[in-house]
Design brief:
Layout lengths: L8 H6 L8 E6 L2 H9 L6 H12 L4 E5 L11 E2 L9 H8 L4 E2 L7 E5 L2 H6 L11 H7 L3 E5 L9 H9 L4 E11 L5 E11 L10 H9 L3 E6 L2 E7 H14 L18 H12 L9 H13 L5 E6 L5 E2 L2 E2 L3 E10 L5 E4 L14 E6 H4 L3 E2 L21 E2 L2 H7 L6 E11 L3 E9 L6 E7 L6 H20 L6 E7 L3 H17 E7 L9 E3 L7 H13 L4 E3 L8 H4 L8 E5 L21 H20 L2 E4 L21 H13 L2 E5 H8 L3 H13 L3 E3 L1
Parallel strand pairs: 1-2, 1-6, 3-7, 17-18, 21-22, 21-23, 23-26, 24-25
Antiparallel strand pairs: 2-5, 4-5, 6-10, 7-8, 9-10, 11-20, 12-13, 14-15, 14-19, 16-19, 20-22, 24-26, 27-28, 27-29
Helix pairs in contact: 7-9, 10-14, 10-18, 14-18, 16-18, 20-21
The structure holds zinc ion.
Keywords: Acyltransferase, Antibiotic resistance, Transferase
Enzyme class: transferase
Pfam families: Antibiotic_NAT, DUF2172, DUF4910, HTH_47
Amino acid sequence: MSKREKIDYKEIIRNLEIKSGDIVLLTSNLTFLAYDAAVNKEVFDENFILDTVISKLGSTGTLLLPVYNWDFCHGVTFDYKNTQSKTGHLGNLALKRDDFKRTKNPIYSFAVWGKDKDYLCSIDPVISLGKDSVFGYLHRVNAKNVVLDVDISDHYTICHYVEQVHGVPYRYNKYFKADYIDEYGNKSRKTYSMSVRYLELDVTSDTQIMYEELLKQNIAYERHIGHHVISYINMGDSVPVMEKDVLENNAVGQAQYKGQFEKKLPLNEEMYKIIKELFPINRSLSGNGNRDTLKYIKENYLGELNIKEYSIKDNPETFDWKTPYEWNINDAYIEDENGNKIIDFKKNNLHILGYSEPVDITIPFSELDNHLYSLENDIDAVPYTTSYYKKRWGFCLSHKQREELRKNPDKLYHVVIDSSINENGSITYGELVINGYTDDEILISTYICHPSMTNDNLSGIAAAVAAAKYIYALLERKYTYRIIFIPETIGALIYLKENITHLQKYVKVGFVLSCIGDNGDYSCVHTPYNNTYTDKIVTHVLKYITDNPKEYSYLERGSDERQFCAPLVNLPVCTLSRTKFAKFKEYHTSNDNLDFVTAAGIGGGIDYICQCINILENNEYYKIKTIGEPQLGKYGLYPTISQKGSAAYTRNMTNIIAYLNGKNSILDIAEILNMKFTDVLETIKKLKENNLIYII
Ligand code: ZN
């Protein structure tokens, strides 16, 4: 039997590589340490471990211990004060101490000590493993995971955060509802989500391959002392490595599962998929098609989307408008005497006049013709037509077909519309609020009231989902984003009725997304006076995104900017489009189909809105610190050899510095110098790194 070296467990703890000011996540198994104490006939003091780590961290450090418990997912009440950790003894000990406090999430909670304790214990996101969770914090601050005698391949939980943020094919976001007793003893029913495995895929999460990669890249290192293994991992630095694995390598470094998965689609193709999948649904101002559309978005992309119902019975009027009744339709067709369906709603929902009353009659064509709608100047297209406020029934068809039918005016047709109009129904809309660190808000609005057409309006829905994904992925958010999916006009009025005071107080910039997925030129509709911050941002983005931007004045308005910019509302909202509504010939016809919008087209639209968001998040006021020009060479900012382009580079940098008086924003400087915002931003970052400027 080999002789074991005698180990002083206190020495192990004293020698942990933790310094003052560190942010440490301590993952531990105390078995070996307790064994050492027993061998040395010492009393094993667990509090010594916490006290020693705390004293090493000092007043500027933060210590977190995992105190996870998954019972909430099985409907068991979470009791903030009494629910025990299932991940280690030390966490339970910390929960008993007055100097530690528990974070709020009932599944992945932490016992926290130190500087960031109050912040960490104040956050309470629904998505347990999302960007706004403690894991997002550990990523942002590049916390150090100190792993004491634990096999990390089973316990590197932040890998599930990466899986959640990027979406992996073997997991999905599931919502759990159970009772929650908060720190003050108040009981309520709460909902939290967790990323869970698809059972049929037999998924195991083993991060061994990933961990070895982290060791190889010096993002993690190990110390071996006797039978102890202590790992140190820079958690923030490990995230990009895991992201690469998830995005490019089917996550083989961190999970094993049955079957092969399609490679994750690029964003534009994924958003085109949304358009394709939502295309067959019949939408209108109200009804089940709108609910199905929002449900699809919530279940597949935006789990925190709030689907709201506005009761028509309680709100017969919305400001100056009569609230339309809820309309639903199951089927509609016209059949000839032989039972052949010559027009069938189930083949193309544009065939029905929106809000048609129910009907079941047999009439000659001469009479039926009064209820038909077609386009004389585009004879193959089926037009999109609605009659929201006057009670009618009708069908839309190609002019070519209509002319053909007109040849037999006496022929009889059986007309069926199986629809319902419900005065007690509701109007459905979706709202997603993504919090930032200021109360200032950005409104992004799109509509959900058009049936099977792509540019108008599925492209707006897809671009809004992509914008939300982009916003979620920002490491830090200055603004709070309010993204709404509403029926056009009446939905905007409903939303204003419910939120106008809040919107007028907090919304600083707003966008309506409409017709943003075709391959035409980029355009916008400005606010009434073209004088808001929104107008300025949009004009700048348009200038660089295309050679041929089209800026329309408010006199060419047509979407929900009509309500948001109305005199007594007065929100700073511009409409973003590629080819604006009514400016393309496929508009409001069956030719606005899955060929008209493309992945590249919607990709451009997504880029357009995301560039606007990027400016919003980064546009700050900076001031130069030096009196006179700084000597750039001293900071390595002046090229020492003259190369092609280096003179222009230096000139741009000195020009930017020339305007850094604290009164010009980055966007102002970009406009003054006729440079792209992102190019100016890059220089600003360099000046900041060299401590030459400061934010005002
Ligand atoms: Zn339209």
